[in-house]
Design goal:
The protein is α+β, with helices and mostly antiparallel strands. The chain has helices at about 1-15, 65-85, 100-110, 125-130, 145-150, 185, 200-210, 225-230, 255-270, 285-290, 305-315, 350-360, 365-370, 425-435, 455-470, 475-490, 495-510, and strands at about 50-60, 90-100, 120, 160, 165, 165-170, 175-180, 235, 240-245, 250, 295-300, 325-330, 340, 380, 385-390.
Length: about 500
């Protein structure tokens, strides 16, 4: 389950980093909206009028529950809002969408002017350029005060040109990277307590390969360049560029020491037979390979403790393996592209802002949206410290669940602890990772490619030709890395870097 979430987050980060046009082409002009001012809503507690139904377009990776199950959840939340919170002028209208086509569907609805209140803006700069989002600055001290306080350090991720358009989801954004291994092949062969970094794996993998020459102890090598980024705080900007340490100067990422060390290590491990010989040609995911036993070790990043990862991999593998894990790196803070805003088609933005605030601050609402109803889709364990599936039911058979969206929506730290998934201890660990993380100097900056779109298209073609074969270790970097860098220069990467650096300088001046 965690791997699916990790895949989701990785793919969404790509969306968040892709540079998009701010030229205004196709921009929608918001219709006249008499309710667009802050605090312009019926007073809480008043029941003279029908409450405004705030539509939440909810993204899920799961099978969408039945209309009846969704309505039951919606009714439970609305009963809580009215009878427990004493708020009678707003209610929730819960609408689901598949994450796979969520952005396309939402943008089509907004382009046609359909009513929508709260939605996941993917990517943010495109939504703002198209005029799909309303500014939230005037709501931050009132309707959105609680949510804004929770995500205050992350508000730059929802900001364009000094205007806040969206509230980031609050989740395990910083990852603990681990080497995860089958204990039956490792115990007694190598003392894994010696492994504390990616470089410490050299001796471990050599010993394991010598003891079990027919086994593989790595899936793929394509995370190695990322792991080296954490060592010297190399922060990737817009896929092709990076800053190093506290510097705000953009450099070609593929010329950094982190990238060079990563691709050379990938090639070395590939030649030594530690990883999948098919390399980038293998289309299976890391989780499919390790869980089936095709590899007896893997590097993966999660916002979960070692104990949880060991239990998760032991419970979910398909061949009966028992797993151990050691931490080899912790990531720096990265931009959070999972941001939720209020659509320009909202008929009452103030009400929508209040509902958004409730979702980010109310434990019952947050947990019910993800887990469903107590006694139906989940129950408390014996000491009421966490929840679990009712006897005889599972994630595939409960009437309602949005579990895989737990890190892509709302405030993950509000959710009830879940046995076999996100425990209360894991939430403490996630918060520790966030609190201790290093923030890059350009945290929150998103480049705009509108003035260099031709060069970006050419650079993308070069990237597609070289990036995977280098990072998986398929080819010798002595030969291919210089070719890659020269081809990027020919495609115009220096022109793009200069344009992005200009934007960085303006961004820094506006965000002192």
């Amino acid at each position: 389950m965690k791997k699916l979430l990790a895949v989701l987050l990785a793919s969404l980060m790509v969306f968040g980093l892709v540079a998009c046009s701010n030229s205004g082409d196709g921009k929608v002009t918001p219709t006249s909206n008499p309710s667009s001012k802050p605090n312009e809503t019926t007073n809480p507690g008043s029941s003279n009028e029908e409450p405004y139904a705030v539509q939440l377009y909810f993204p899920t990776m799961m099978t969408i529950p039945s209309a009846e199950a969704i309505k039951d959840v919606e009714n439970a939340i609305n009963d809580h809002i009215k009878n427990n919170l004493g708020i009678t002028d707003i209610k929730l209208d819960l609408q689901f969408g598949h994450l796979a086509d969520y952005s396309t569907t939402a943008n089509m609805q907004l382009a046609s002017g359909e009513k929508m209140d709260i939605y996941l803006a993917l990517p943010l700069n495109t939504a703002v350029a198209n005029g799909y989002l309303l500014p939230l600055n005037d709501y931050l001290d009132n309707e959105l005060k609680g949510a804004a306080e929770i995500v205050k350090d992350w508000l730059p991720c929802g900001t364009i040109d000094g205007t806040i358009y969206a509230i980031p989801c609050y989740k395990g954004q910083v990852l603990s990277w681990k080497y995860i291994y089958d204990k039956a092949y490792v115990d007694g062969v190598y003392d894994m307590s010696k492994v504390k970094s990616v470089d410490d794996l050299d001796a471990a993998l050599a010993a394991l390969k010598a003891a079990h020459p027919n086994e593989r102890f790595m899936v793929y090598n394509n995370q190695l360049h990322t792991l080296y980024c954490w060592q010297d705080h190399t922060n990737v900007i817009g896929t092709y560029f990076a800053t190093v340490g506290d510097s705000t100067e953009l450099v070609n990422y593929f010329e950094t020491e982190a990238f060079k060390k990563g691709v050379y290590k990938a090639y070395e491990w590939s030649r030594l037979g530690y990883s999948d010989p098919e390399g980038s040609n293998n289309t299976l995911g890391h989780d499919a390979v390790i869980m089936s036993g095709q590899s007896k070790g893997v590097i993966m990043g999660h916002a979960y403790s070692i104990e949880t990862i060991e239990l998760m991999f032991t419970m979910n593998n398909t061949y009966g393996g028992e797993f151990g894990a050691v931490e080899i790196a912790r990531s720096d803070m990265t931009n959070n592209p999972l941001v939720y805003g209020i659509a320009y088609t909202s008929e009452n933005p103030s009400a929508a802002a209040r509902m958004l605030n409730l979702i980010w601050t109310d434990e019952f609402i947050a947990s019910t949206l993800i887990y469903g109803l107590e006694g139906v889709s989940w129950e408390w364990n014996e000491d009421k410290s966490s929840i679990r599936y009712p006897e005889g039911l599972s994630i595939d058979t409960v009437p309602y669940t949005a579990l895989y969206s737990c890190g892509a929506f709302g405030n993950q730290f509000l959710l009830y602890g879940f046995d076999g998934n996100t425990s209360n201890e894991d939430k403490v660990f996630m918060k520790e990772l966030i609190d201790e993380a290093w923030y890059p100097p350009l945290f929150g900056f998103i480049p705009d490619a509108s003035k260099v779109s031709t060069q970006i298209a050419a650079i993308s073609n070069v990237y597609d030709q070289y990036f995977n074969v280098l990072t998986y270790g398929d080819v010798n970097p002595d030969e291919y890395l210089p070719q890659f860098i020269e081809a990027l220069k020919a495609a115009g990467i220096e022109e793009v870097r200069a344009e992005y650096q200009r934007q960085v300088n303006d961004w820094l001046a506006a965000n002192k």
